[in-house]
Amino acid sequence: MPKIVDHDVYSRQLAVQAASYFSAHGYAGTSMRKVAAHLGLSKSALYHYFPTKEALFLACTQMIMSGEEADLLDPALSDGQNLDRLYSAMAPTFASEMSLVFDYLRGKEPAAIAADEAMGLAVANYRALVAGIVGEERAEEELQRLLGRLLLTYLSGSGAGLEAEIRPENGEAV
Amino acid sequence: MPKIVDHDVYSRQLAVQAASYFSAHGYAGTSMRKVAAHLGLSKSALYHYFPTKEALFLACTQMIMSGEEADLLDPALSDGQNLDRLYSAMAPTFASEMSLVFDYLRGKEPAAIAADEAMGLAVANYRALVAGIVGEERAEEELQRLLGRLLLTYLSGSGAGLEAEIRPENGEAV
DNA sequence: ATCTTTTTCGTCCATTTGGTCCAGATAAAG
DNA sequence: CTTTATCTGGACCAAATGGACGAAAAAGAT
C-alpha cells in the first residue's frame, strides 16, 4: 500500500536526533515546530510519530539512557588506561546527556528518581562498565571519580559543549 | 523621598528566591509572571528590579555561583571527616544548583565556558575548599571525587531533589 | 498639606506555544 | 491509470509568553 516506512525504526531515529535538540535547548525551550524543522519534517509529521511533546521527550531520554558504551575494555591495557578510554568515550556527549537527564529528573523527588527504571538501568550500566575494568570492589569509587572528572572538565570549559552536535542551524540564546 | 527600599539588597534577595524557581522549572520553563507570583510581587514590580528575564536569570546564577561554603574546615577532624562534612553541606543544594548551572552553560561552547569568570571563580572556590582539607597536591582528585559522589547520589535518587526548596505551591509537570 | 521621586500595579500587544484538523501529495497494488 | 492506505504541510485555535506603558500608591522632604 503506502510508503514502506518502519514506524518503530523511524521514530527511534527521530528520537535520537531530537535528543540533541532537547539537550541544546532544554525541554521547555524546545518547541515541536523547531524540533520538526530540525529533523526535516513538518510539525504534523512529527505528531504522527509522537502524540505529544512529552512523549517525544520521553523517547529521547530512554534513547540516551539506554545507550551502550560497549566493547571499550581492552585486556591488554592497564586499568588506568581503560578508564581513560572510557572517559574519552563519554566526554564528548557527557554535557549533552547530563543536560537531558537533568531536564528529565527535574521536579522528581529522590524517591521517584530511585524508583525510575530507566535511570537505574543507566547508572547500573555505567557501574558495570567500570566494574569490568577495576572489579566490583572499586567500582563505586571509580565511577564517582569518572563522573566527577567528566563534570569538572565540562564546568571548566575543557570538554565538548552542548552545541557541538547541533551547530548547523539556529542561533538563539539560552 | 520614597519608600526606603535598598534596591541592591532587595534585588539580591529576589534573585536568591528566584534562583530556586529557575532551578525547579528550568530557564525556558520559567515565566516572569510565575516567578513574580512566587516572589509575592507583580510582574511589573519584578521588571522594575530586573529589566529582562535574562537579567534576572543572570543575577540568580551569579548569586548561586558566588555562594560561600565557608568555615566547614575543622582541624580536629580527619581529612575524610572534613570531606564528608563538605559533602553533606553541598548535597542538599547540589542538584538544584547544577540544574541552574546547566541552564546557564547551555549553548556555550567550551571556550566560552573556560572564559566565564563567574564559573571559573565558582570552580576555583570549591577547589580551594578541598585544597584546604587535603592539600593542593590531592585537591583536584578529591574535588573530582566529591563532585562525582554528589552527582551519583543525585542520579541514584538518594539525594535532595530539585523541588525540595520550593514545594509549597504549583504542581506543574516537567 | 503638598510636592517629588521611587515603587507597585493593571492593562495591552505581538509572538509563540502545544495540539487539532483537513486537503493534498505519495506510492505500492490492481 | 486507478485505487487506497499512509504521509505531509499549512491553517487554525485558545492559552501563555516577554516586554512596554501609564497610572496609582507610598512616603520622605518641604
Automatic annotation (TrEMBL), chains A, B:
InterPro entries: Homeodomain-like_sf, HTH-type_TetR-like_transc_reg, HTH_TetR. Residues 8-68 form the HTH tetR-type domain. Coiled coil: none annotated. It comes from the Bacteria. GO terms for molecular function: DNA-binding transcription factor activity; transcription cis-regulatory region binding. Keywords: DNA-binding, Transcription, Transcription regulation. Residues 31-50 bind DNA. This is HTH-type transcriptional regulator RutR.
